[in-house]
Amino acid sequence: MAAVVDTADAAAAAAEEPSSDVVPNADPAVWRGVLGDDYEAIQELIDLTDPEATKSPAIIDIYNGVPQDKDKKNKTADEAPPTPPDENTMRRCIEDHRALRASLTNAIRFYHARQGDVPAASRQLARHLLWRAERNMQLEARQTAAANAGEGAADAEAMSVGEARSSHIPRELMEEGSFKAAGRDKQGRPILCVRARLWQPGRFAEADEEEFAMYMLDHIEMKMNGSKTESEWANKTPVGEQWVVLFDMTKWTTANSDIATVKRLIKILVVHYPDRLGMAIIFNAPFLFSAVWAIISPFLEEVTRKKVLFVKVSRLQYRGLGLGLGLGLGLA
Length: 332
What we know:
Blueprint: H1 10-16, H2 28-35, H3 38-48, H4 57-63, H5 87-102, H6 105-113, H7 118-151, H8 153-158, H9 161-166, H10 171-175, E1 179-184, E2 190-195, H11 206-222, E3 243-248, H12 259-272, E4 277-283, H13 289-296, H14 302-305, E5 308-311, H15 315-318
Parallel strand pairs: 2-3, 3-4, 4-5
Antiparallel strand pairs: 1-2
Helix pairs in contact: 3-7, 4-7, 5-7, 6-7, 11-12
């Protein structure tokens, strides 16, 4: 069984791995055969979110930074962007959308996540494109700053995405160990282990916490096996395009409880990584956690709550735990 990666360099090592395989661009007839009637709906979704050609007033407002009312059915995923996007952000947004049109798989995930509701999926996807564009612009700014600081243009251009993204995350947060890569389950899905007892609420700035969480999620995403054929995308997101999150609650106390941060992380997962979660395991949660779960669970959509598995075992069972999932855990 795979063992929990306990080195502080786990995330950096993940950054060096190649991205997961993706289905190569196929003939539209192939996708149409796989997706059936959903093919036209997904094409509509892509057209609606095109920054250069959309005719949807709601999407135009999003790209113009106009505040929107929240969707009562999807409160977390329908928030307005914090500030109107600038010209460079929109340039990157247009580039990202062109890549989206070239490969249907990301659009399909958003479509699946919103259960075929094209208007809802288009709003979520538009917000995601802006969010991703903003992050990419920040990375470019860091690389430029590195060059201006004397590291040289060549070195700045050679800086990996992982290095650029982590360059301003506090080292103490990187080394804290609360988020770790933890091998794979029996279906080959990469596992992100969150060790709750190591979390110290209020120690780090909210922006740093969110950036670190996204940094780890991006690298777990890189570890996915990916999908090999178009047929795997019929009616659902393939197993090879998902991950597992293991929340190790061993030795957790209320001093580690941070509801505000949990809510922010849920929003990131729901809005920007839709249908990536294959399973969430809450492991060895103490009785006190039930009160926290009562607060957190309403923020999860029903389809996500169904993916949550509570597991509790004795200390003697803890080492070498299998659960038929292929998880490898060491004593906390």
